[in-house]
Amino acid sequence: MMTQNPSIVAGLPPTVLTVSELNRSVAGLLQRTFPLLTVRGELSNFTRASSGHWYFSLKDAQAQVRAVMFKGRAQWVDWVPRDGERVEIRATVTMYEPRGEFQLSVESMRRAGVGDLYAEFIRLKEKLAAEGLFAPEQKKPLPRYPRRVGVMTSPQAAALRDVLSTLARRAPHLPVVLYPVPVQGAPAASALCSMLKTIQQRAEIDVLLVVRGGGSIEDLWAFNDEDLARQLAASSIPVITGIGHETDFTLADFAASQRAATPTAAAELCCLALREIQQQCTTSQRQLQLSWERQCQQWQQRLDGYQRELGQISRVTERWRWRLQAYQQRLPAALTVPYQRQQFRLQRFQEYWQRVPGPQSQRQALQTLTARWQAAIEAGWQRHQQRLQQQEQALTLLNPQHILRRGYVLVYDDRGRLITTAAAAQGEAHLQLQFADNTLAVRVQQQSAS
C-alpha cells in the first residue's frame, strides 16, 4: 500500500526539503533506529590517514559497508589491522552528510579470525618459503649501471606515470621499454606470467620493474599467483617490485630480486641518478689524474737516477781512457828498454864467453841459460800483451758508444751542448740526436707537459 505525503492528503502544499535537510533527517533516523551494535566481517581497503583516522570497508560474501574509526578510538587498538583479516566491531550506523554515504562509526575493534584470501596468501607464502624461493642467496644482484630498463604494468596505471616521471628526472639518458599487461582482474595473473616469459626470451633489458598502484587484497591478488612467484624467482633478469603502498605485501614482492615500497621507490632503486654518475666520474677522473702524476714523478726520479749513474759511468770511462793512453805511451818504453838492456848484457856476456876459452860443458850451459833468458823475456812480453788486451776490453764495455748501442740516445742542442732534462729542452727548435751509428737532426714541432 503506497503512503501519500500528509500535506497532499490534507490539501496543503507539499513540504520541500533541501539535500542537507534530507541527509540530516536520514542520519537522525538511522541513529534512532539502530543502537550500538556488533558487526562481523572481513577488512578491505584499509587506510590510515595522516590525521590518525582509519578508513576501511567491512565485507562478507554478499555485501560490504564503509566504516570509519576516528583517532580517539583507534589509539586503543593494540594491533595494526590488515586487509583480509576478520574482525568484530562495535559501531553505530551513521551517514556522512556531505556525500550522503551510509557508513559505520566504529567504537572498538577486535580480531575474529583471518579472511579466506589472507589465509590463502599465508598458505602459499609458507609453501614457497619452505621450497627456498624467497632465500636471499636466490636473489639476482641489481646492475649498478643498467643500459635499458623495462616496466611491466598497465599503460593506464598511475604507477606508470610515477615511474616515467622519476626516471626522466633522475636518469634521462636511460631508455625505457614498456610491457603492457592488465594488473587487476581474473586474467591478470596469466597475462603477467605470459609477458614475463616474453621478456625472458627477448632479453633486451638489464632490469625489470613490476609496478602497480595501491588497492585492496582483491585488487592485488593477481600478484599472489603461485606461477608468477615461481617465474619471478627463476628470472635471469633482476626484478624490482613496487606494488601498492608501503604496507602492501604480495608473493611477487617476496620472490623478486628486491622490493620497493612504492612504484616511485622502485624507479629510484633501479639506477643511479645522472648527477651521482657524473660525480663518480669526476671523482674517478681526479683520482686517475693524481695517480698518473704520482707515477710520472716516480718515473722522473728513476730517470734522474739513471742520468746520474750514466754520468758516473762516463767519468769512470774517461778516467780509464786516460790511464789506457798513459799505458799505451809508457808500454813501449817499459817493454823495449828492459829488453834492449838485457839484449845488450846478453851480447856482452856472449862476447865475453867467446873470448874466454873453456870446456865444452860451460859453453853448453851458456847456451841453455841464453835460451831460458830469451824464453822468459818472450813470456813477459806476452803477459804484458794479455793485460793490455784485458784493459782494452774493460774500457770498451764502459765506452759511452757501447752504451748507445743498447738503445740510449744523447741529445744536444744546436750549439752542441748536452741536454739532460726535459726542462733544458724548452724553447729549443732544433735538436741533435746521437745514436750509436749516426747522428740525426730533428725539429721540435710540439712540446707537452708531462
UniProtKB/TrEMBL annotation:
Domain Exonuclease VII large subunit C-terminal, chain residue ranges per copy: 133-442
Protein name per UniProt: Exodeoxyribonuclease 7 large subunit
Catalyzed reactions: Exonucleolytic cleavage in either 5'- to 3'- or 3'- to 5'-direction to yield nucleoside 5'-phosphates
Subunit structure, as described in the record: Heterooligomer composed of large and small subunits.
Gene Ontology CC annotations of this record: cytoplasm; exodeoxyribonuclease VII complex
InterPro entries given in the database record: Exonuc_VII_L, Exonuc_VII_lsu_C, OB-fold_nuc-bd_dom
Superkingdom in the source lineage: Bacteria
Function: Bidirectionally degrades single-stranded DNA into large acid-insoluble oligonucleotides, which are then degraded further into small acid-soluble oligonucleotides.
Family matches, as CDD domains: ExoVII_LU_OBF
EC class (word): hydrolase
UniProt EC number: 3.1.11.6
Xref: NCBIfam families: xseA (TIGR00237)
Residues that span the membrane, as ranges: none
Pfam families according to UniProt: Exonuc_VII_L, tRNA_anti_2
Any single GO BP term: DNA catabolic process
HAMAP family: Exonuc_7_L
UniProt keyword terms in alphabetical order: Cytoplasm, Exonuclease, Hydrolase, Nuclease
GO molecular function: exodeoxyribonuclease VII activity; nucleic acid binding
Domain OB-fold nucleic acid binding positions: 17-110
PANTHER family to which the protein is assigned, alphabetical: EXODEOXYRIBONUCLEASE 7 LARGE SUBUNIT
Compartmental location: Cytoplasm
Similarity comment: family membership: Belongs to the XseA family.
